[in-house]
Amino acid sequence: MQRVREFIRDILRQTDLVLLALCCTATAYGILMIYSATRYMDTMRLVLVQTVGALIGVVLFFVFSMIDIGEVMRKKGWLWLTVFSIGFILLLKTPLGRAGDTGNLAWLDFPFLPFMVQPSEVVKLTFIVVLAWQLVWLQENRTLKKIPDVLFLGAHLMVIFGLYYAISSDMGSGLVFVFIFICMCFVAGVAARWFIGGGIAAVLAFYILWEEDMIKPYMKDRFIVVFDHSYQPLNVGWHQTRSLMTLGGGKLTGMGLFNGVQTQSKDSSSLPNRHTDFIFSAIGEELGMVGCILALAILAAIILRCIYVARNAQNKLDGYICVGVVGMLLFQVLANVGMCLFVMPVIGLTLPFFSYGGTSIVMVFAAMGLVSGAHSRSRPDWLRQ
Q: Could you tell me the residue ranges of all domains in the chain?
C-alpha cells in the first residue's frame, strides 16, 4: 500500500495540477451543458460517452505528462509519428471511413468504439510534435532563413494538410493545421516576409478558386452569408440565425439551466447541433452573458497557462509543442465563438472541452498532458524530486 501511495505521489509531482484543474473544470462545465442540450433526445448516451472520453483523457494526461518527448524523438520517433499520421488519414479511404452531412469524409467508424473517430483530432497532436522537432533540428543544424529550409517546413504542412483535405474536404480542420504551423514557425523565428508572402499567395489562390468556381457551392454560400445575413436566411443562414436568436434570448443571466426555449425544444426548427458546434449558444441562452464569459474565462486561463509553460520550458522542443497546443486551442475557440456570433463562417469546429466529441475530448487532454510534461521538466531537480 505504501508503494502505491508513493507511486501516486510521484505521478502528481510530475503533473501540472493547475492545468489539470482548469481542464477538468472546463470539462465538467461542458458535460453539464451537453446534458442540458441533449435532454430533448431522451437519452443519456451522449453524456456517458463524453464522460468516458473525459476519463480516458485524464488518464492520457497523466501518461503524456511522464513521457520525455525529446527522448522519443531522438529515437526516430518523428519518423514513426509521420508514418502514423499519413496512415491514419488514409484510413478514411477504407470501408471504415464515414461522411458527414455535407459529404466531408472526416470520420472513422471502428466497430469496437462507442463513438466515431476524427483522424484530424489525432493528427493535430502528431503534427505539433513532429513540427516542433523539425524546427529544433533546423535551428541546430541549418537555419530558418534560407529558402530550402523554409520549403522543408512548408512541405511538412502541405503533405498533412493537402492529403487530409484531398481525402476529407474538411476545410475547417485543415485550417487548424495552417494556424498551428503559423504560430509555431513565427515563435521559432521564421522571417516575417515568408508569412506576408504566404498570406498574399493564399488570398490570390482563394480568389482564383472562387472565380473559377472551384470551391464547393455550400462553402461559398457560408462565406457569402457572413457578409450578407439576409442571404438565404431559411437555408444557408439558418444555423447562425438561430444561434443569434438563442444567444440573444439569454440576455445577461440567462433563462435558467434546463429552461432554454431553443436549447430544450424538440422542434426540428430549433437550434441545430446545440451540443456540438453551437454549444456556446446554448450556454448563452440558459446561463446568459455571465455563463458565456465564465466559459471564455476558463478557456483563456487554460491558454494562458500553456503560454506560461512555453515561456518557462526547459528546452525549445517543449516550448514549441506548447505553442502548437496554444495555436490549436486559440483557433478553435475563435472560430467556434465567431461562428456562433455570426461573424465567421460555419466550418464545423468544436469548442474545446465544451462541445460533444469523444475523439476531441480525449485528444485535447492528451495535448494538455504534453504541456504538463513540459512544465514538469522546467522545474529544478530538487523540486521535481
A: 16-384
Grid coordinates belonging to 200: 498574399
pLDDT band at 380 (very low <50, low <70, confident <90, very high): low
Q: Which residues contact 272 (CB under 8 A, 6 or more apart)?
A: 238, 239, 242, 278
Q: Which three cell numbers stand for residue 269?
A: 426548427
Rg for the chain (alpha carbons), in Å? 21
Condensed to tens digits (0 to 9), the pLDDT of residues 316-354 reads 999 999 999 999 999 999 999 999 999 999 888 999 999
- Residue 87, CA distances (Å) to 78, 98, 168, 323 in order: 14, 16, 14, 25
The interaxial angle of helices 147-168 and 78-90, nearest 10 deg, is 30
pLDDT, tens only, 219-254: 888 889 998 888 888 788 888 999 999 999 999 999
Q: How far apart are CA 22 and CA 373, in angstroms?
A: 16
90 DSSP assignment: H
Q: How many CB atoms lie within 10 A of CB 236?
A: 20
* Angle CA 189–202–170, to nearest 5: 100
**Tell me, what's the pLDDT at 217?**
84
Helix (H) or strand (E) holding 295, with range, is helix 279-311
**Prediction pTM value:** 0.93
Q: All 3 cell numbers of residue 189?
A: 523565428
In terms of phi and psi (left: phi > 0; alpha: psi -120 to 50; beta: otherwise), the region of 169 is left
Spatial separation of the C-alpha atoms in residues 128 and 370, rounded to whole Å: 11
Dihedral (CA of 138, 144, 149, 155) sign: positive
The span from the CA of 162 to the CA of 202, in Å, is 14
Grid cell at residue 363: 485528444
**Which contiguous run of DSSP H or E holds residue 98?**
strand 97-99
